Amino acid sequence: MPQRKTSLVSVRLHYFQTVVRAGSIRRAAQSLNIAPSAISRSLRQLEDELGTPLFERTRQRLRLTSAGEILLYYARTSASELDRAASFIGDLAGLRRGSVSIAAVESVTRGLLPDVLTRFWKRHPDIKVDVITMGSLQGLEAMLQSDCDMALAFDVRVPKTAQRLASVNLPLGALMRSDHALGRRRTLRLRDLAGERLLLSDASLALGKMIEGAIADAGVELGAPAAFAKMLGEAMDALKRD
Questions:
Q1: Where do runs of H (alpha helix) occur along the chain?
Q2: Which residues fall within 8 angstroms of residue 154, CB to CB, at 6 or more apart?
Q3: Within a domain: 184
């Protein structure tokens, strides 16, 4: 947790969130370099003040109760907002320092993001940027849970509790042999692929779901998956023989 955020959040909440991340009071005490008894006392005071347990203590493991999960959610949200406020205040004072965390899909972290960050750091060299690689839906959820400041994702619905800062339409391509009947076309439409055997992204990916939905809306019927699977198997066998 950044020092600025720690200084704004109460000590009890800071200890509470550290215990959640560490999974135990002992490991939390080690990370904070304080005595475990100090953390235990702070947690008891917090539970007494709220009038309910925050952890279930079984077999030397700590598990959040329903009340603990609620407190964690709002503690993270408030901490994120306080840190954002401190960043704005720092900018007004001309400090231009701080940190930002970004969740992004792997293709963006390898392609688009490095160039963007290079230009960003030329203007803001003292801003620390933490990049977390995860799927589109996971990145959106991490942002909503205040585990990161922003998310770069493909084709996700932005809830009312979040704000879309920018968006861009990206073209999709089809990879095929140069001697394929469609290989010389500069542009393709989905219906041009009717009857073709295609290897598509899995539906677990946001891009895969988007393509499946577009195919369904266009009423396009692709080639038989079994026939393609057989063809792919034959190609793999041929590569092994070579």
A1: 3-8, 11-22, 25-32, 36-50, 66-92, 106-110, 112-123, 136-144, 206-218, 225-241
A2: 105, 136, 206, 207, 210
A3: no
Residue 199 falls inside a structural domain? yes
pLDDT category, 103, cuts 50, 70, 90? very high
Going across the sheet that includes 127-133, the strands are: 127-133, 98-104, 150-152
The better pLDDT of the pair 10, 225 is held by 10
Verify that 121 and 162 share a domain, yes or no: yes
Look-up of token digits 């200890």 = 15
The angle that helices 25-32 and 36-50 make with each other, rounded to 10 degrees, is 120
Mean of pLDDT over the chain: 79
Bridge partners, residue 100, by sequence:
129
Rounded average pLDDT over 19-41: 89
Structure tokens belonging to residue 84 = 């954002």
Please name every residue paired with 57 in a beta bridge, in sequence order, or none if there are none.
62
Residue 8 predicted with pLDDT over 70: no
Query: Model pTM?
Result: 0.46
1 and 88 co-located in one domain: yes
How big is the chain by its Cα radius of gyration, in Å? 25
213 part of a folded domain: yes
Q: Which residues constitute the domain of residue 109? A: 96-170
**What is the rounded distance in angstroms from the CA atom of residue 139 to the CA atom of residue 152?**
7
Q: What is the CATH number of the domain that holds 141?
A: 3.40.190.10
When pLDDT is averaged across residues 172-197 and rounded to a whole number, the result is 80
